[in-house]
Structures are given as C-alpha cells and as structure tokens.
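From the shared-data thread, chain only:
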Amino acid sequence: MIDDGTGLLTIGELARATGLTVRTIRYWSDEGALPPVARSAGGYRLYDAGSVARLELIRTLRELGLGLDAVREVVAGERTVAEVAAAHVAALDAQIRSLKVTRAVLSSVARRGSTAEETTLMNKLARLSAAERGRIIQEFVDEMFHGLDTADPEIRERMRGLAADLPDDPAPEQVDAWVELAEMIQDPEFRAHMRAVAELNAADGGARAGTSMWFAKRVVELAGRARERGIDPESPEAEEVLRDLLGDTDRTAVLERLQASFSDRVARYRELLAVVRGTGPLPRHREEFAWVVAALRARAGS
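Structure, as tokens:
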C-alpha cells in the first residue's frame, strides 16, 4: 500500500496480496479486464480493495476457461456470471463433441492403417454437420424417388425418415460405417441401382401403402417355413410355396425385383445405416429371399 493515505495498492502489492504475477496482472489490466482506479504521480497504476475482489473473480473465470472478452463483460456488469457460464458450457459441449469425433477418427485410422488420403477423407466426412449429413441422405432419397408417384408411399416415407447422424460420442466403428455409407450413397453406380429398385416398385402402379413391406414379411414367413421343412427350391414341393406366395403374379417381374432389391450391396447399405444409428444389426433374412430367388430361377422360362 502506498504511503499517501489513499489506501491504494501498487501492482506489485496487488500481486503479493493475490499470489499472481505482476506480468499477469499487467496483461489483464492492459486488456481492460482490470483497469487501474488511479495513477501515481510517477504514472504507476494504482488499485483499491475492490480491485482485489475483481482480480479473484477474473482469476476464477480464466481458470474455468472463459475468454477475456467474456471476463471483461462480467467485470463491467454487462453480463452476469450465470450468462457467460451458460455460453461457455455450450462452447465446451461443442468442443467435447469435436474431440470425441477426433478420437474416433484417429482410432479408426490407427486400426485400419489408413493412408494420408483415406485419413483426409474420413476426417472430412466425419466432421460434416448434422444438417450436412442429413442433406446427403435427403438428396439420395430425392433422386431415388423423383417422379415416381406410384411407388409405395410407405417405402418412400421410411426412406425419408432414415436418420443417419453420428451420435455425440461416436464409436470408431460408427465413424467407419458413416464414411462407407456416405461414399456409397454418393456413388453414381449405387444411386443408379437404387433408382432402378424404386422404378420396379413404382411399376406396380398404385400399389397400396405397405404392400412392399407386407410382401417382404410373407417371403420371410413362407420361405422360412419351407427351409425349416427342408424343401429344396428346385423340388416340386417348392411350387406350392411359390403359388401361395405369388398367386398368378408375373414371376419374371418378381424375380427381377427380388434380385435388384435384395442384392448384397443393398443389404450392406441397410447394415451401415443400423451401425451409424446404433440400433444394432438388422435381420437381413438373406436365406429366405435367396430361397425364393432360387425357386423362381429354377422355373424361369418353364
């Protein structure tokens, strides 16, 4: 305390009173967070008892990671501590999410032994915002069903409702799945294949909503029973199963549709969606659909 009866402190005395360095206090003062209350005759900064309390607040806020701009606003009374704390929590949440994505990407790179090019692509795709990821999916679905008003509306809505967003704390396998999924749905060949699947569905011409899902369930049910009974797809007994399943439907058209709709690549697409969404593996029922396809092929042209 300077000996002039004012009770004011020099910057050195303030440093000793708070345990902070003179350099730190001078920096905060220069930045406007702790302006001096006066100057000595020699031009030295002077602080009062209130400066000690403000300095403790500044130190606390800085230790909590707040920037000097926010600290200045609190000290000046422009914002409350609660307001800047809430804003800082939101910023920290975003930073934590980013760090978790970084960790997942690096874990994937280390596990896969990725090249520099693969690492760059993986990082870019993983860091897309939720809105950008949603846009990629939406553009894919829009192209798939554009102009196909007679496609099963339930299928269209299910496709549009498929969220493929990474969670806040993605596992490395979810990052892997999202990267593969994003590459797949941007692949012109896969997009053309899925468009063909949608066109086959639309060719049914005004089928009632849910018809496609109903048919898939019937395939699983009837073919599953046939397999349990050991019926060979080429055997005469398989004909009864096909009649029960298809009636007088054009079998050539059904075969074409099944081969397109239940290909390995389409199955992989569904699998990747499930991994990204964290819903666990979806039942593929490959054996049941393969049984029907084999039964139809055995009778093709007959």
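The longest strand covers residues 45-47.
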